[in-house]
């Protein structure tokens, strides 16, 4: 027959296990949310590079518009 000390030890162990499981579930949910947020983000670095390149090309075309070939 379990004593009060054994019941208290089992209760503490169960609390630790339940808190560990809750923390793991929270970590997994946060990772899933982070992945979803990354998928929705625009690739700003790529867009910035593309816009910058287009601006350079436009500037060169503008500068060379009156140059005779």
List the topology elements:
Layout: H1 4-40, H2 44-63
In DSSP terms, counting alpha (H) and pi (I) runs of 4 or more, how many helices?
A: 2
Q: State the major sheet.
A: none
Strand residues, percent? under 5%
Q: Given the helix and strand composition, which structural class is it?
A: mainly alpha
Rg (C-alpha, Å) = 31 Å
Could you tell me how far the N terminus lies from the C terminus, measured between alpha carbons in angstroms?
Answer: 102 Å
Based on CA inertia axes, which overall geometry fits? Answer: rod-shaped
Secondary-structure element sequence? HH
For the secondary structure, the number of strands is 0
Describe the structure.
It comes from Sphingomonas oligophenolica. The chain crosses the membrane at residues 42-63. This is DUF3618 domain-containing protein. Keywords: Membrane, Transmembrane, Transmembrane helix. With 69 residues, the chain is mainly α. The chain has one domain. It contains 2 helices and no strands. The chain is rod-shaped, with a radius of gyration of 31 Å. The mean pLDDT is 75.
